[in-house]
Amino acid sequence: MAKIRVHELAKELNIISRELVQTLQNMGMDIKNHMSTLEESQVDWVKSRINQANAKESATEKKQESSQMQASQPQSKNSSKNIESGRDRSKNTFSKNKNEAQNQNKQQTSNKKIGGQNQSKQESVRHKHADDQSKQKPIRQRPVGDNQPSGQKPAGQHQPSQKPSGQKPVGQHQTKQKPSGQKTSYDNKKGQQNNRNNQPQRRDYSKPQKKKHKKKKVDTTPKTPDVITILDTITVRELAEKLNKGSAEIVKKLMELGTMATINQVVDFETAEIIASLYEVRVERGISEEEKILEEIVDSEESLEPRPPIVTVMGHVDHGKTSLLDRIRKADVASGEAGGITQHIGAYQVKVNENRVTFIDTPGHEAFTSMRARGANITDIVILVVAADDGVMPQTIEAINHIKAAEVPFVVAVNKIDKTEANQDKIMQQLTEYNIVPEAWGGETIFAPVSAITGEGIENLLEMLLLVAEMNEISANPDRAAEGVVIEGELDKGRGPVATVLVQKGTLKVGDSLLAGFNWCKVRAMTDDRGRRVEEALPSTPVEIMGWSDVPEAGTKVQVVDEKIAKEVTNLRLTEKKIEEQKQQSKVSLDDFFEHMKESDIKDLNLIIKGDVQGSVEALIQSLIRLSTDEVKVNVIHSGVGAIIETDVMLASASNAIIIGFNVRPDTKARKHAENEGIDIRLYRVIYEAIDDVKKAMAGLLDPEYKEKFLGRAEVRATFKVPNVGTIGGCYVIEGKIQRNSNVRVLRDGVIIYEGKLASLKRFKDDVREVAENYECGMGIKDFNDIKEGDLIEAYILEEVARNL
């Protein structure tokens, strides 16, 4: 309720405004006149006081009226006898006119009112005295016609002549006199009640207070609860309602605690708990509707069925993890990786002795620490690969720590036993320092010596994996809604956002709706690790899914829900994320203001990182942030998946940042904008080269480098196979120029698929030195024949320049 003026309240209570002003002033309130305003709490208090006063007055009036009614009943009988006695006293009494009789009755009524205060004993004495007088009166004094015997003449014949002119006979007069006396008594009672009603007892404004809803509001005043339940956040208005307090009161409490808030502002759980403690109310954390919907389903033991174990391969770089997987799944993966290093998480399912095993290959470089952690958390068994000729290395120790933190069983694969410098005993001795003791030495860890090159010991390793899986009873319920985890996500130019998902529980089918963090997906198509279309994915099956709203983050939990719920939860999470980001920005700008003042001497290196897949971007971010020192701080202000676009360059220009591209290239608009704005774009294909460059730049140890100079870009519009030469691309120069013997890179959907040298450049049948923009030409690339229509060929040369950032 808003504020109300005194005259409005008087109208509501049916009271004169000046009387209400006087009443409020008597109550001790600071009221000037009828235009003064009252708060909601004051109005309720005034109504309550008036209701109490009216209730007391009503009870008093009822009690007085009851006592007066009891007293008037015997007095009425006595009055009738007095009237009869008066008629017997004298005949002249009834010869008076009607007005005198009525005056006498009024006098008797007045006497009756005074006599009503006496006790019943006095009334009986007066009644007996009247009867005695009636018996002593002579018969001749009785009026004619009043109980006169038939045929008897009146004692005085001169009476009719003495009757005043126009006066009715005594008999007629007597007939009307008795009812007249009764009517007068009745009228006196009514008059007494009217007199009471006319007294200034404020009865007019008390009547509206007797309405049921008013009494209900007073009688059912809510009390402060003992316990309330709230979510992570709550508005001030909702908190006041739960505490049964006014919103203004809660706002005042917050102000006393140093928090300026409005009734619609959101406060966190801790703040609400402090406010509730002021009223001695205990606060419990509730479960939101989102948490109820997404609450984990616990499967019964009867519904569980054996599933393929999920095996993760960990170890130091160059210790042969990928080569070991190649031997197991009989596929060549390492040859497609830059520098022979696995850059992405890959999931593969292989068949081993009529059983299926899912392998996850995690990179071994230190930059992928977080990715290895995710691999350990979603895995059932870990293969720790250690090279027999190299021994335990720093990345091997990190892998051991992740395995122990995840508390998963593991098998040690001692690789490269085919080499002459291999020493298995040395490896076992080094691992005992980390409480890893082989079974041969009385421990519990299985050691399997293998050779990824010759295939020695591979079958024994697979048998050990199946044995460990059997001992741990790995199972899941396939007959339920699917749950899983995102292994990797990327933005494909032709297919849009795609993600590799490892199904952990249930069965995933085409057409299901998925919820993963801030993204949702309507499964349009699924492919396995071999690129084959599948309609459903059972537990422990990795599949690549199309139909995402955006690229999901690696390691995000995936759950099958209703499509409507998926959209609502996604929108809710995005809204909460924006609010949280705004709070963080405000907090940094205010709370850390003086800290920034103190740290003004510290230099910031702002970076924008773009990559081809989410896992690589995340690993690069964490590696670069760890390079921060006391003098130079690395800030990653933006990151994403996909090619470098114009908006990235605009952001770099506004924030004075450097753009780092990992396995991606800038488009034409982005490159031109970067040249105009002088934005430094650095492109890498191997992650440790980017880390080393940033590290050297921060340490001030940058050596001269060869910086590429962009020459031109051509689009492949046709391909021709020439015997003894290879595949020739019929190209159209869309930008710049193409020079003979220049360096080239082949781009497909914005991703680099090959880098090399230009082998031949022709126009028609003639060799030429260069081809300008908007001309056609034929190009051959040295040692590369996988040219397809739609590919872009980018030409550049390397120039030696001084390195700086």
Automatic annotation (TrEMBL):
<dbReference type="Pfam" id="PF11987">
    <property type="entry name" value="IF-2"/>
</dbReference>
<dbReference type="InterPro" id="IPR005225">
    <property type="entry name" value="Small_GTP-bd"/>
</dbReference>
<dbReference type="GO" id="GO:0003924">
    <property type="term" value="F:GTPase activity"/>
</dbReference>
<feature type="binding site">
    <location>
        <begin position="415"/>
        <end position="418"/>
    </location>
    <ligand>
        <name>GTP</name>
    </ligand>
</feature>
<feature type="region of interest" description="G-domain">
    <location>
        <begin position="309"/>
        <end position="457"/>
    </location>
</feature>
<comment type="function">
    <text>One of the essential components for the initiation of protein synthesis. Protects formylmethionyl-tRNA from spontaneous hydrolysis and promotes its binding to the 30S ribosomal subunits. Also involved in the hydrolysis of GTP during the formation of the 70S ribosomal complex.</text>
</comment>
<feature type="binding site">
    <location>
        <begin position="361"/>
        <end position="365"/>
    </location>
    <ligand>
        <name>GTP</name>
    </ligand>
</feature>
<dbReference type="Pfam" id="PF00009">
    <property type="entry name" value="GTP_EFTU"/>
</dbReference>
<dbReference type="GO" id="GO:0005829">
    <property type="term" value="C:cytosol"/>
</dbReference>
<dbReference type="InterPro" id="IPR009000">
    <property type="entry name" value="Transl_B-barrel_sf"/>
</dbReference>
<dbReference type="Pfam" id="PF04760">
    <property type="entry name" value="IF2_N"/>
</dbReference>
<dbReference type="GO" id="GO:0003743">
    <property type="term" value="F:translation initiation factor activity"/>
</dbReference>
<keyword id="KW-0648">Protein biosynthesis</keyword>
<dbReference type="InterPro" id="IPR036925">
    <property type="entry name" value="TIF_IF2_dom3_sf"/>
</dbReference>
<dbReference type="InterPro" id="IPR000795">
    <property type="entry name" value="T_Tr_GTP-bd_dom"/>
</dbReference>
<feature type="compositionally biased region" description="Polar residues">
    <location>
        <begin position="172"/>
        <end position="185"/>
    </location>
</feature>
<dbReference type="InterPro" id="IPR000178">
    <property type="entry name" value="TF_IF2_bacterial-like"/>
</dbReference>
<protein>
    <recommendedName>
        <fullName>Translation initiation factor IF-2</fullName>
    </recommendedName>
</protein>
<keyword id="KW-0396">Initiation factor</keyword>
<dbReference type="InterPro" id="IPR027417">
    <property type="entry name" value="P-loop_NTPase"/>
</dbReference>
<dbReference type="InterPro" id="IPR006847">
    <property type="entry name" value="IF2_N"/>
</dbReference>
<dbReference type="Pfam" id="PF22042">
    <property type="entry name" value="EF-G_D2"/>
</dbReference>
<dbReference type="InterPro" id="IPR053905">
    <property type="entry name" value="EF-G-like_DII"/>
</dbReference>
<dbReference type="InterPro" id="IPR044145">
    <property type="entry name" value="IF2_II"/>
</dbReference>
<feature type="region of interest" description="Disordered">
    <location>
        <begin position="52"/>
        <end position="223"/>
    </location>
</feature>
<feature type="compositionally biased region" description="Low complexity">
    <location>
        <begin position="100"/>
        <end position="113"/>
    </location>
</feature>
<feature type="domain" description="Tr-type G">
    <location>
        <begin position="306"/>
        <end position="479"/>
    </location>
</feature>
<keyword id="KW-0547">Nucleotide-binding</keyword>
<keyword id="KW-0342">GTP-binding</keyword>
<dbReference type="InterPro" id="IPR023115">
    <property type="entry name" value="TIF_IF2_dom3"/>
</dbReference>
<keyword id="KW-0963">Cytoplasm</keyword>
<feature type="compositionally biased region" description="Basic residues">
    <location>
        <begin position="208"/>
        <end position="217"/>
    </location>
</feature>
<feature type="binding site">
    <location>
        <begin position="315"/>
        <end position="322"/>
    </location>
    <ligand>
        <name>GTP</name>
    </ligand>
</feature>
<dbReference type="InterPro" id="IPR015760">
    <property type="entry name" value="TIF_IF2"/>
</dbReference>
<comment type="similarity">
    <text>Belongs to the TRAFAC class translation factor GTPase superfamily. Classic translation factor GTPase family. IF-2 subfamily.</text>
</comment>
<dbReference type="GO" id="GO:0005525">
    <property type="term" value="F:GTP binding"/>
</dbReference>
<feature type="compositionally biased region" description="Polar residues">
    <location>
        <begin position="66"/>
        <end position="83"/>
    </location>
</feature>
<feature type="compositionally biased region" description="Basic and acidic residues">
    <location>
        <begin position="123"/>
        <end position="135"/>
    </location>
</feature>
